[in-house]
Design a protein that fits this description.
The structure holds two protein chains of two kinds. By secondary structure, chain A is an alpha/beta fold. Chain A contains ten helices and ten strands. Chain B has one domain: Phosphate transport system protein phou homolog 2, domain 2 (Methane Monooxygenase Hydroxylase, Chain G, domain 1, Up-down Bundle). The chains are: A alpha/beta, B mainly alpha. At the A-B interface, helix 8 and helix 10 of A face helix 3 of B.
Chain lengths: ~250, ~230
C-alpha cells in the first residue's frame, strides 16, 4: 500500500470507557476510495473504533483515547483540532434512519446552511447532487417539500446518506446502515456503497458477514477489543490467516 | 486438528453427511475396480456384468452428493474452510463418478477378452490396478484426516502407474507387430491399461484437492510449472 493512498491511520490506539479498555493497541490503515468493513461479535470494539474516527466518542463522558488517529497525516485528537471540522470531513450514517422531522429539502440543506451555503440556486443544486449520489433523486424529486418522515425506511436511510454527502465529506462512516432495512432496500444501499467509493472512502461496521463480503475491499476482524486480522476481503473470507477469524466467519464461535 | 462445532448443529450434520457419502462413493468405486479386474483375471464375465450394472448406484450417489453440496451453498453461504470443503467435495464427487464409469469400461473390455483365448499372462495390469485402488483409498483417507503428507504420497504414486502403462503399451506393440491376429485383444488390454492410468489421474486430482482444502493452496499445475522451469 502506498503511503499517500492512506486517508486514515490509527496508531497503537487504546480506548477506555472509564476503566474498561474497549480497544487494545489497534493499528490500522484505511485506504482512500476503498470500502473497509469492520466485523466481529457484539462488544468486540468495532463500533467504538468507528466512532473514534470522527470523535463521536467525545460526546460520551469518561472516555479516553491513547495512541494516534491520523487523518491525512494529522492526529485528530490534537488539542488544536476542531471536532466539528473533523465531523464535517468524516461523515456518519447510523443504524436506524434518523431524518430530521423536516422536509426532504431541509434535511439536506440543514448542515450546509449552518456552514454558510446561502442562495436558493446553490441549495437546489446541492440537494439535487446529494440525492442523485444517494440514488434517491428519481424517487423524491417531485416531493422535496414533503416531510422526510413519510418516506419508507430504506428511503429515509438513503436520505441520511444524502444528508451526510451534502457536507462534501472525504470519508463516510457507516454503523450498521442496513440492519433496520428490508432486503431490497439493503441491496440498494449496497449498490450505492459500490457507487460512492469512486468519490469517497467508506468504513462500514456490519453484523452481516455476507454484507461485509459483498461490499468491502478490506475487512478487519475484531475480538475482545483487538484487531485479530486485517486483510483483503476475498482473502479473509476464503483463506483467513488466523484461526479465530476462521472460527468466527464459519460460525464456530462462542 | 480438532475443529470446533458450528453454532448450528444442522450445518455440521450436513457437512458430515457429505463427507460420509463421499467415502461411501469411494468405497463403491474401489470395489468396482476390484471386481472389474477380477472378472478379467479369473475370466468371470458374470462378475463383469454386475460391475456394469452397479455403476448406476454410483451415479445416483453422485447426484445425491451434488444436490447436498448445492443445498449447503444456497442455504448456508459457506465461507473460508467450509467453502473450500464444499468446492472440494463437488470436485471429488465428480472424480469418483468418473472412476466408476472407468471401472464399468474395464469390465466391458474384460467381458470381450473373456470370449477369446488369453493373449498373455497379466502381470503389470494387477499391479497397476492395486496401486490405483490404493491411491483412491489413500486420497480419501487424506480427506478425512486432512493429511497433506498422505495426499503427497498419492500424487507421487501417479508416476508408478504412468510408467506401468507405458511399459504395457510397448509390450503390446511388439505382440501386434509379430502377429496381427493379436491386434484386437491387444487393443482391448491397452484400453484397460489406459483406464487404470486415468483412474490414478483422478485419484491424484482428489489428493490435490485435499491439499487445497487444508492449506488453501492450489498445487494442481505445480508439476507442469516445474517442467517449464
Amino acid at each position: 500500500m502506498q503511503n499517500n493512498d492512506i486517508i486514515i491511520r490509527t496508531k497503537n490506539v487504546d480506548f477506555y470507557y472509564g476503566t474498561f479498555k474497549a480497544l487494545i493497541d489497534v493499528t490500522m490503515d484505511f485506504e482512500k476510495n476503498k470500502v473497509t468493513a469492520l466485523i466481529g461479535p457484539s462488544g468486540c470494539g468495532k463500533s467504538t473504533l468507528l466512532r473514534l474516527l470522527n470523535r463521536m466518542n467525545d460526546l460520551i463522558d469518561g472516555t479516553r483515547v491513547e495512541g494516534e488517529v491520523l487523518f491525512e497525516g494529522t492526529n485528530i485528537y490534537n488539542s488544536n483540532v476542531d471536532p466539528v471540522d473533523i465531523r464535517r470531513r468524516i461523515g456518519m450514517v447510523f443504524q436506524k434512519p434518523n431524518p430530521f422531522p423536516k422536509s426532504i429539502f431541509d434535511n439536506i440543506t440543514y448542515g450546509p446552511k449552518l456552514n454558510g451555503v446561502r442562495g436558493k440556486t446553490a441549495q437546489e443544486a446541492l440537494v439535487q447532487r446529494s440525492l442523485e449520489q444517494s440514488s434517491l433523486w428519481g424517487e423524491v424529486k417531485d416531493i422535496l417539500k414533503q416531510s422526510a418522515m413519510m418516506l419508507s425506511g430504506g428511503q429515509q436511510q438513503r436520505l441520511c446518506i444524502a444528508r451526510a454527502l451534502a457536507m462534501k465529506p472525504d470519508v463516510l462512516l457507516m454503523d450498521e446502515p442496513t440492519s433496520a432495512l428490508d432486503p431490497i432496500s439493503t441491496a440498494k444501499i449496497e449498490e450505492l456503497i459500490a457507487e460512492l467509493k469512486k468519490d469517497y472512502t467508506i468504513i462500514i461496521v456490519t453484523h452481516n458477514m455476507q454484507q461485509a463480503a459483498r461490499v468491502s475491499d478490506y475487512t478487519g476482524f475484531f475480538y475482545l477489543g483487538e484487531l485479530i486480522e486485517f486483510n483483503p476481503t476475498e482473502k479473509l473470507f476464503t483463506r483467513p490467516d488466523e484461526k479465530q477469524t476462521e472460527e468466527y466467519i464459519t460460525g464456530r464461535f462462542g | 486438528m480438532e475443529e470446533k462445532a458450528h453454532t448450528s448443529s444442522i450445518y455440521d450434520k450436513a457437512l458430515q453427511s457429505i463427507k460420509e457419502n463421499l467415502l461411501y462413493a469411494g468405497a463403491l468405486a474401489e470395489k468396482a475396480i476390484q471386481n472389474a479386474m477380477t472378472s478379467l483375471l479369473e475370466r468371470d464375465s458374470e462378475l463383469g456384468r454386475s460391475v456394469i450394472d452397479s455403476d448406476e448406484q454410483i451415479d445416483r450417489l453422485d447426484e445425491a452428493i451434488e444436490r447436498k453440496c448445492l443445498d449447503v451453498i444456497a442455504l448456508r453461504q459457506p465461507v473460508a474452510k467450509d467453502l473450500r470443503f464444499i468446492t472440494t467435495a463437488i470436485k471429488i464427487n465428480a472424480h469418483l463418478e468418473r472412476i466408476g464409469d472407468m471401472a464399468a469400461n474395464i469390465a466391458e473390455k474384460a467381458i470381450a477378452l473373456n470370449e477369446e483365448p488369453q493373449l498373455k499372462p497379466y502381470i503389470d495390469l494387477p499391479r497397476m490396478s492395486d496401486t490405483a485402488q490404493q491411491m483412491i483409498k489413500k486420497s480419501l483417507d487424506a480427506l478425512v484426516r486432512e493429511d497433506c503428507d498422505l495426499a503427497e504420497e498419492v500424487i507421487k504414486a501417479d508416476e508408478i502407474v504412468d510408467n506401468l502403462n507405458d511399459q504395457i503399451f510397448r509390450e503390446l506393440l511388439t505382440f501386434m507387430m509379430e502377429d496381427p491376429r493379436t491386434i484386437h485383444r491387444a487393443i482391448l488390454i491397452m484400453q484397460i491399461s489406459k483406464n487404470l492410468e486415468r483412474i490414478s489421474d483422478h485419484a491424484t486430482s482428489i489428493a490435490v484437492m485435499v491439499i487445497y482444502l487444508v492449506t488453501g493452496r492450489n498445487v494442481r499445475h505445480r508439476d507442469k510449472m516445474k517442467k517449464i522451469k
